[in-house]
Amino acid sequence: MAPLAYRRLLAWSVAMKLSISVVGTGRMGSALARALLRSGYRTTVWNRTKQKAEPLATLGATVAGSVLEAVNAAEIVIVNVSDYQATAAVLHDDAVASAIRGKLVVELTSGTPHGARESAEWFAEHGASYLDGAIMATPDFIGTDAGTILISGPRQAFDANEEMFRALGGNVQHIGEEPGRANALDSALLALMWGALFGTLHAIAVSQAEEIDLGELARQWTATAPVVDGLVADLIKRTDAGRFASDDETLSSISPRITAHSSIFWS
Ligand code: NAP
User: Rounded to the nearest whole angstrom, what is the distance from the C-alpha of residue 133 to the centroid of ligand 1?
Assistant: First the structure.
């Protein structure tokens, strides 16, 4: 048998053996469940509002009537609810806590590094393996080559289930054993993202006040974005190297910008 065909068969058979439950089928949880179903995993879903989980049944998912049923049905439990308080509301129950023993829990809910560490301790106390992840993508990226998810926690638990993680996105990475690392990097990357999004609102307001067509703003931003990407990368690199003073390699120093842009903003 050709090696590639054999590898595909092996991947398929491993996928068929694993049962996965997705707890929380909002926008993101539904996308995670759809990606698992597309890759042939036996998938059980549970959602507080059951109607939101039901469309997944037409794709082959089993809709559990309770969290306990979902946990019992799977070897791996993926959690994706609003926040860690919601995770605790769902899983911190005596029957669920005892059912979770021996399973792998993958927490993909957004949270803080501290929340991830606390969570890792709770699952360790209850005999479960635990990986904590940060999804750096919107639901339409899940299951695609460009889907990025950062995972922290025991490397061995990630490696043993890499095939499943690949089903969720082509760019799923283990970034360290310390459980809070994925959420820490998430906070850092979201700071960049929100800065850009709030900046966009400001750019729209300036354009509208000056009767600049928003299509023109979009076109000019496409041309300017690579320059901004370069400046962001440069700032990170300079900080890493401790090069804070302006020198020959400086692309753009802040002093002329403060003078020029404060006059733009305040005039
Ligand atoms: P969403 O569509 O609003 O779904 C929220 C989910 O959390 C629903 O399943 C909801 O259940 C459940 N939930 C909330 N409180 C609960 C509670 N106390 N008990 C049980 N279930 C509860 O949000 P989402 O976009 O899927 O986001 C889910 C997580 O993914 C968040 O942590 C978010 O930050 C993260 N994330 C999302 C995106 C994105 O682009 N959407 C990107 C990266 C990360 P009900 O249906 O019953 O309300």
Answer: 14
Atom 30 of ligand 1, residue of closest alpha carbon: 109
The β-bridge relationship of strands 171-176 and 76-79 is unpaired
Question: How far is residue 142's CA from residue 42's CA, in Å, rounded to a whole number?
Answer: 18
Rama region for 210: left / alpha / beta (φ>0; ψ in -120 to 50; rest): alpha
CA of 27 to the centre of ligand 1 (A): 7
CA 133 to chain centre: 6
Nearest-CA neighbor of 61 among 52, 242, 5? 52
Within 10 A of 72 (CB to CB), how many other CB atoms are there?
18
Put simply, whether the predicted model's pTM sits higher than 0.85 gets the answer yes
Q: Is pLDDT larger for residue 1 or for residue 153?
A: 153
Query: 135 CB under 6 A from ligand 1?
Result: yes
Residue 65 C-beta-side C-alpha neighbours within 13 Å: 0
Q: Which two tokens stand for residue 72?
A: 């019992």
pLDDT (tens digit, 9 = 90+) per residue, 70-110?
999 999 999 999 999 999 999 999 999 999 999 999 999 99
pLDDT tens, 249-261?
777 776 666 565 6
Pocket lining: 80 vs ligand 1, CB cutoff 6 Å: yes
The set of residues, in sequence order, having a beta carbon less than 8 Å from that of 38 and lying 6+ positions away, is 143, 167
